[in-house]
Amino acid sequence: MQVRILIFTLIAAFFVLGNGKTILAEDVIKGGAIPQSEGGGNIQWLWGDVMNVDTQNKALAVKYLDYETDQYKEISVSIDDGTTFENVLSLGDIKPGDVVSIDFLVDAIGKNVAKNISVEKPEAMLETQEPLAPAMEEEMPAMQE
Questions:
Q1: What's the total number of domains in the chain?
Q2: pLDDT along the chain (145 residues), means of 10
Q3: pTM for this entry
């Protein structure tokens, strides 16, 4: 009976301690840099207004609402050859005042690198909204006195 308990305890310890990255904190900051996962890090997302477009340095400045602090912040996002665009062909087509949705990664030196930039088109947003007034008139018959 004691042998079974010992084997069970060893197996349980293996499963608990076997994942040393989380239990033993092997994945702690090494050399002052936050380690990235093998897949290139976690993709982050933001949605906001374009404040500045720097085509020379291939970067965007975007003003967005930080949901954790409820304050507006500005972030600079770099564009590289792997960046894809939606509703525009290139960085040159993006203008200050455009509303963008950006998927980005933070690289090893702390630079925000865009993976996908989607420009929200105002006419596309208007098409999805149905007018309320005409629909209400059809559904509600006129009141008679």
A1: 1
A2: 74 63 43 43 92 96 94 96 95 95 93 96 61 53 55
A3: 0.57
Q: Which amino acid is at 67?
A: Y
The CATH number of the domain holding residue 70 is 2.40.50.320
- Strand, coil or helix: 53: strand
How is residue 22 written in tokens? 């989380």
Three-state DSSP at 87 gives coil
Which of these, 47, 50, 129, 128, lies nearest to 92 by C-alpha position?
A: 50
Within-domain flag for 34: no
Q: Is residue 122 part of a domain?
A: yes
32 found inside a domain: no
Burial of 98 (0-12, 13-18, 19+ CB in 10 A): buried
Q: Is residue 63 part of a domain?
A: yes
Range of the domain at 75: 44-128
Radius of gyration of the chain (CA): 26
